[in-house]
Amino acid sequence: YSCASLDTNISVTGDEDGFVKMWDNRLGDTSVMTFKRFDEYVSSFLKIDDHHLIAASGEGTIQSFDLRNKKPDIQSEMYDGELNCMGTVRSGTKLVVGSGTGPLYLFSKDQYGLHSDQFPGHPDGVNALIPITDNVVITGCEDGNVRAVHLYPHRFLGVIGHHEDEFPIERLDVNTTGEIVASISHDNRVKFWNVTYLEEMDYNKQKKPGILPKSTVRSKSKKQNLLREAEHQLPSSSRGNKKEFFSGFKDD
Fold this sequence. Notes:
Blueprint: E1 2-5, E2 10-14, E3 19-24, E4 33-36, E5 42-49, E6 52-57, E7 62-66, E8 71-75, E9 83-89, E10 94-99, E11 104-108, E12 117-119, E13 126-131, E14 136-141, E15 145-150, E16 155-162, E17 169-174, E18 180-185, E19 190-194, H1 220-230, H2 242-245
Antiparallel strand pairs: 1-2, 2-3, 3-4, 5-6, 6-7, 7-8, 9-10, 10-11, 11-12, 13-14, 14-15, 15-16, 17-18, 18-19
């Protein structure tokens, strides 16, 4: 279901039954580590440093592994919805985990039992994420939107772009300079987004995540729709912002 290369010889795989296996290509086709730590599929891996690997799962937990001793280490509590993707910010001291219910959960390094903070603002599930600076993360979402968020302080920067017919974003990647982000979706297209403008933004002037007027209805689905309508469209997005539409009209 998922796999990752740890170095030129070592790789790990995770299957739909929750097994995590480590392989050494110098030792043939027998795994050098096998553990079943989940009751659902293994969604992704992240090598957080030379000695620790993190696995995320469809059951809503993450599990760290000690690579030196080839054994499980710390497992998190169970969260609502699957945990799909991971990345690090703040010089590798914070692990960011994207969930199928929308929030980003942040864990302090080596403390994976319970999150230390969260970013609640996504109106739909987060399927993919990739850090492009020490505080800015790009997310690929179930509703077909590619979004930019700033962490510490937490700010929603806006929508970078979208795929047609609201097909879910499945994967993201970034070039070596951090200027071009690529996204792939079920519309059979790979799209490329120039995000150099993110370096020039004043993050303190951006909206906090998930902020709506106090009169907003309590229905979750209606709240999600209102959040989408209120989202700021960044320069790379083909959609405009409401305030820009009226900017050409003079006041009477």
